[in-house]
Here is the input.
Amino acid sequence: MKNVSKLVIKMGLLSLLSVVPLTAQIVNGVDFTTSFPFYAGNAKMPAGSYKIIQSDMDASILQIQSTDGVHSAFVDFLPTHSAQPHPHSDVTFHKYGDAEYLNRIWVQGQEYGMKVEPTKAETKAGANSSVVEHSLSASLR
Here is the structure.
C-alpha cells in the first residue's frame, strides 16, 4: 500500500511538471531588431531584424529567423517564471567580451518566459569573463 501511494504522489508531481512547459509559449511569435551580431545556440546571427517562433515539431524548441529568411537557427529552451506578468515583450542577451548570446524571451502579459539553454561555448565564455546582461524591446507578431 505504501508503494502505491508513493507512485500516486510521483505521478501527480510529474503531471504538474509537464504542465509548466505548456505555459511558456509564443502564440504568433515575436519580432526584434539588433544592431550587433549574436549567437542563437551554436549559430552566429548577423545584426538585423528577426522573428522568434515556436517549432511546430517540438514545443520546447524555438526557431530564430532573420526577416529576410537568409539566417535561421533552432534552440532549446527551458520555461522560466516571473512573479508578475511581464510588462512588455523583450529579448535578453548575455555579453561576454565581444560575444553576445541570446538568453531569454519574455512575452508581454505572461508570467512565463523562455530561457535559451547555454551552449558549451557560452559556458566557457562565462567562465573566462563576467557577463553583461541587456535587453531589446520586442513586438508581438
Q: What stands out?
A: Residues 16-23 have pLDDT under 50 and may be disordered. DSSP finds two helices and eleven strands in the chain. The chain has one domain: 2-140. The two ends are 52 Å apart (CA to CA).
